[in-house]
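2024-03-11 09:14:02 DEBUG pipeline.ingest accepted 1 chain
2024-03-11 09:14:02 DEBUG pipeline.ingest length=426
2024-03-11 09:14:03 DEBUG pipeline.predict start
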Amino acid sequence: MAFLDLGGASRTLVKLLDEAIKASPIWPPMQTLLVSGLPPDRLTGDNAVGMYLYHFSEDGALRNHIWPGRPGAPIKYSPLALDLYYVLSAHSDLDFDQAPYREQMLMGLAAKALHDVPAIDENTKIGGVTILDSALIGAENRLRIALRHVQPTEAVSYWTAGSQPLRLCAYYEVSVALIEPEEPPTGGPRVLTYGIQTFLSGLPRVDTSRSVMTFTVPGETIARKVEVQPAQVAPGDELIILGTGFSGGSVTLLVRRPGAPAPVEVDPAWGVYAAGDRVFATAQTTLAGEPLVPGAYTASVRVTRTLALPGGGVRTLTQASNETPFLVAPGITAVSAVSATGVFTVTGGPFIAAPAVPASEVRIYVGDALLAAGTAGTLAPGEAAVISASSLEARLPAGLPPGQSVSFRIVIRGSESAPRWVKVPS
């Protein structure tokens, strides 16, 4: 929920005022309205409203906040929380005896709009129009608006210090705007074990998820197999759910997408079956007909049993387990040989799946160095580019020892591909 352009917050407020004032029952339907981010002394024309950002300060409550996933990181890797301060004003070109009343009507309508909509998020709409600026959508941004209680003598001082005449204004505080931090240039190690929770007996219970990661270390001819818990699977990998209470009925595997309100049943191609205290499935490229993109998911098991009633007949009883996490990893099916200039191509994926996974969320590491974004076909050393959902191109950083095998990995939404290595050209 961070961004770099403060203009996104200002454009949001301008759109709110424009839509709310025009929707007011006392606004003349044929009148033109001009809402902008200009300061009071630059407003011109008739029916002009300005919402001007004149100051900002760091939010004291979040100054020392520990952000998830970044404890102990340098300050530049944490968002900068800002409180934004705006001055609201209006201007009219009507005759001198009518202009003040028109300006006061505009100020009243604007003040009501900012009072009626004290918080703006992706769901805020007026007349079917989404208010949040498009640059802020998709990152859970939320802007809170509050009228500042400025004393009359203090408000007058804003104008008497300059050459402009006194203007009717109101002052607002908008919080919290989080300025996008720098991305850490290195990635931490993989977590292979996750704690187990206990629950009351009598229902299907999931303890954890597990998968087997297969890779071949340079110089070895036999592939290594490592159990990963919670599971980390790419399309085609086996997902194992461990627990109890899976027997005695038909078993269904449910998977919840990141941020989804409820889990969904996996596609038949996953081939779900139960054996004792384990449920097995093979991850596919789709989940309930939609692309399965990399990221953190949860899995649960639903058991449907048919019970015979004493007086005859049957009763179907369906019980669902708790949820356990697992990761969907970027799949790598092939890696080309490294060219003399250090360029190689990776196929697999999905590496992008708009809008769930934009290309900007694909991070490629060589060793522990994060490759910068570049343009396919013209990559500089230490750059990479996503070509399509199933392929990407990368170029090794300069200075690597010739003939050495270096690891590379792809990280998308916190999920990391299986270990791979490429050889630096001699």
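2024-03-11 09:14:41 DEBUG pipeline.report Helices lie at 7-23, 99-116, 152-160.
2024-03-11 09:14:41 DEBUG pipeline.predict end
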